[in-house]
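Example for tutorial group B:
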């Protein structure tokens, strides 16, 4: 069989979000550097931890905006941070976009059993390249790790009082 001469059309994040066949999917989707959809299965604890982290961020940093499931345009496709916090100024830049052209100041990834160390390291680097100040990782037990562009930190630089663990309910 001869190789296909048809070039695949690269979909934008807006087109993916508006595709009726992709509405209400029970799993998380992102894109890779080639614009292909990548699906990541999650467990129920995943969304709960992301919500709890965003809620705590909103309480501790009321001068900004916290949210969950924030699509961020990166050099290697659209990645979705599980929880985010950003200043009101940054929020004004991104609030009406499908995929934020600049990362929120804090991007949080809740780890799933399918995540690899390489994948998470790449996402962390991509968030920093897109403008994040900090990237936090939350394991399935609710333990948090904090990073800035220089590497691991003992606590968040922006919100040092943030707990190092979120109790899974």
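The residue assignment follows.
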């Amino acid at each position: 069989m001869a190789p296909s001469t048809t070039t695949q059309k690269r979909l934008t994040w807006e087109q993916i979000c508006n595709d009726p066949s992709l509405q209400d999917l029970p799993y998380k989707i992102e894109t890779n550097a080639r614009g292909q959809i990548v699906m990541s299965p999650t467990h129920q604890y995943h969304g709960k931890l992301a919500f709890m982290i965003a809620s705590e961020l909103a309480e501790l940093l009321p001068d900004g905006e916290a949210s969950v499931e924030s699509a961020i345009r990166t050099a290697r496709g659209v990645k979705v941070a599980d929880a985010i916090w950003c200043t009101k100024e940054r929020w004004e830049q991104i609030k009406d976009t499908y995929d934020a052209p600049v990362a929120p100041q804090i991007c949080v990834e809740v780890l799933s059993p399918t995540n690899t160390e390489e994948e998470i390291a790449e996402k962390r680097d991509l968030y920093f390249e897109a403008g994040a100040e900090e990237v936090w990782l939350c394991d399935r037990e609710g333990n948090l790790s904090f990073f800035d562009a220089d590497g691991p930190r003992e606590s968040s630089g922006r919100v040092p009082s943030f707990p190092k663990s979120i109790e899974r309910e």
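Residues 59 and 65 are 10 Å apart (CA to CA). Compare this with the pattern of hydrophobic and polar residues in the output above.
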